[in-house]
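Q: A reviewer asked whether we had any structural model of the full assembly, not just the individual parts. We don't, so I'm hoping you can provide one. Inputs are below.
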Amino acid sequence: MIKVTVMYPYTEGARFDHAYYRDRHMPMVKSRLGSACAYYTVEKGVAGRAPGSPPAFVAMGAFICESAEAYEAAIQQHRPEILADIANYTDIAPVLQLSEVVVERSDR
Amino acid sequence: MIKVTVMYPYTEGARFDHAYYRDRHMPMVKSRLGSACAYYTVEKGVAGRAPGSPPAFVAMGAFICESAEAYEAAIQQHRPEILADIANYTDIAPVLQLSEVVVERSDR
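A: Here is a predicted structure for the entire assembly that you could use as a starting point for your response.
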């Protein structure tokens, strides 16, 4: 199982519409990925190590998928639509990484 | 619900023992957090946006907790022990952030 994590670095004065990201963008990407993606997660950055300090990332989204191959095959033809939607909620360029899921959740 | 994400930036030549992190460090932290932490997740960085490029983070761990207050109260007295254990698996200084869980998992 793999995870594709999309991270939006905190940037002073940058724009990020958390409601659009949660209600429109992430469900759209999930629908394009179809069965290649089991589920996704969304979080909103609150603080860094020190309370009140800015978080490293203002938002993070992750897609938990069966395999990197399944993810790539599913997203390929939808990439232009997905990338074009980013401007609707932010002007931050996201950092993306592919990870291997080592512990999906420790209580299962 | 909040998430405390601990991210280890990819560093050329750095050391990271994924087995120790999975089998020793993360279960130890969870046991110290007790009921303040519902569960944790662990992932291993594979690649950045381009296949074969280094990931932003060589590993990430996250603790999903009831509240920031519960997490802080639980971890406070164990912080020296937890910080001292880091040298046992890596020489990378982790980046930590507190997030609000917006979508815990989209299929629930």
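A: Points you may want to mention in the reply: The first strand of chain A starts at residue 2 and ends at 9. Chain A is about 30% helix and 35% strand.
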